[in-house]
Amino acid sequence: MRDELNGVPSFDGLKTFLAVCRRMSITGAGEALHLTQSAVSRQIQSLERSLGVQLFRRQHRGIKLTSAGQSLRDLVGPWSDELARFCATHGTARLAPVTVTASVGVTALWLLPRLAAFNNAHPDIDLRIAAHNRVVDLESEDVDLAVRYSQGAPAGDAILMFGDTILPVAAPELKSAFKSSSGILEHPLIEFDDRARPWLTWNEWLSILELPTTPPPRLLRFNHYDQVIQAALEGQGIALGRLPLVRPLIQQGRLVAPAWKPRKSDFGYWLLTRKRLRPEAETVMEWLMQEANAEQNYE
Amino acid sequence: MRDELNGVPSFDGLKTFLAVCRRMSITGAGEALHLTQSAVSRQIQSLERSLGVQLFRRQHRGIKLTSAGQSLRDLVGPWSDELARFCATHGTARLAPVTVTASVGVTALWLLPRLAAFNNAHPDIDLRIAAHNRVVDLESEDVDLAVRYSQGAPAGDAILMFGDTILPVAAPELKSAFKSSSGILEHPLIEFDDRARPWLTWNEWLSILELPTTPPPRLLRFNHYDQVIQAALEGQGIALGRLPLVRPLIQQGRLVAPAWKPRKSDFGYWLLTRKRLRPEAETVMEWLMQEANAEQNYE
DNA sequence: CGTTCGCATGACGACTACGCATGCATGCTG
DNA sequence: CAGCATGCATGCGTAGTCGTCATGCGAACG
């Protein structure tokens, strides 16, 4: 009973009404509005009650606009657009930026290549990437989302994006190295040298491949994974490729991998979210997970 | 941060915005919307924040629309009307009726004559009068407002509408009776006979006027006050007039009163409200009090 | 028939938005 | 020029709204 004296119903209900009209579904509108079906159902009911007209005919499955509903949609529909236009013209308000953090390697090899597409699809969302190798605290550092490479689920609200698979990669000119496993030893090995956490190292790989570790192989060390890959691209040696990060490079033929022994790692790429996500951040999250699923389908 | 993904602000804020535009005052809009100035101020602020534009320029006294504010008003202004029109056309929703109870006398002599004006001013409010002489319980009997004639404040939320003044009245053809106080005894005395509560009676008046009560005067008794007045109008005798109820009749010359001794009564007309009033009922209350104030000004 | 899909609804809970009291800046008045 | 009136902003505490969760119900699908 929040109506004004005149019989004008709550304007806010109209926004929901339009969303329902667009998808012709209460459940669907709920998703679009980041609400539950329940909430939308109630809003529509309250709107109908407040103006005393059935707007939708509820059917076995789905809903249908009544004639009154159609009139209302035709009347109100344009308003939303006009208002949006007004906001674009006069409004200077930007949504607060959504910040995603990831390691330098993930940022360079996975995030950045996808960024343009996102900005295209959501020009209104100001997405910022904070590339750090250190683990940041989402709550305290004003970061909304984090992509973490970790063994098992990290602490906090985390969803697995995709697992990891490790395989040696090198520039095409070195592909002869992969004819036999021992060929690897003929080239420098490029090592990802993250002091903080002992990732999969060449040492382990050599033992898995039953190759001698003496004399010690020549190692090139980098502390950012993208530099590891960069060096490999430049033909400086053989790197341990993390498949989700290097797959496009392999597909483009800019890196080659041996036919043998891709190894599923027990590490995975996890998406961490802060406790309470703003709707924009929610959108970013959904997009990340969608991209992640595309990746997963390769596994 | 209830906005949708697009930059459209809360529609509800717009309604408030329009109200402010109409009266060019935040305080004023508050009254119109039955809200406090505080609430309106916040809503406007939140609207401004959500679309990132100053809508009003705050000045020493009052406010001024900025150019953005003007644009918005011009854009949104018509919507409210169109929506109201839509509601009128398609909407069948009526506000729940507002019920006012009063004694039969007050209803006939004070309420009914004013009712047409109210219905004119508020065609959307369905005002119903329940005329009972018995005291009804507002909460339990689904009654919003009650006008009560009582000595001192009645129990509950009550405001004094106006006091009472008693004076003898009669039809013009009996006006000779008022030349001297004893002239009264030459005519039948019309008595309001409310068994439940002993109102001011002729017996008391005769003793006040120092007139003999023996032989007992001829009394006409009615149990509804409007019948008392009706009888007086028909020249059947002299009634004790309650000034607020009979003033119009005196002004029209349909009743006459003696020049002497109008007596302020310690009874008064009180407006009782139920605990939680709906906005419509609030409107009715305001109207009643306004009418009451007009009456008070005669006192 | 059991399952699924889509909407409605009862109970509960968090968060919003309101009211109250107050502050501040300005203008008006005697 | 002091004191009061007016109009908007704001801190704080709270009532009530609105959303979520869980569940129910009816129809269609395989």
Pick out its properties.
homodimer; eight-stranded mixed sheet; DNA-binding; 299 residues; alpha/beta; two-stranded antiparallel sheet; elongated; disordered N terminus
Question: What is the terminal-to-terminal distance of chain A?
Answer: 55 Å
Oligomer: homodimer
- Give the helices and strands of chain A as they follow along the chain: HHHEEHEHEHEEEHEHEHEH
Average pLDDT level of chain A: 85
Provide the spatial order of strands within the biggest beta sheet of chain A: 4-3-5-10-6-9-7-8
The structure class of chain A reads: alpha/beta
Question: How much beta of chain A, percentage-wise?
Answer: 15-25%
Low-confidence stretches of chain A: 1-6
Number of separate helices of chain A: 10
Radius of gyration of chain A: 26 Å
Largest sheet of chain A: 8 strands, mixed
Descriptive report:
The structure is a homodimer of 299-residue chains. Chain A has 299 residues and is α/β, with parallel strands linked by helices. In chain A, the strands form two sheets. In chain A, strands 4-3-5-10-6-9-7-8 form an eight-stranded mixed beta sheet, sandwiched between helices. In chain A, strand 1 and strand 2 form a beta hairpin. In chain A, 35% of the residues are buried. Chains A and B meet through helix 1, helix 3, helix 4 and helix 10 of A and helix 1, helix 3, helix 4 and helix 9 of B.
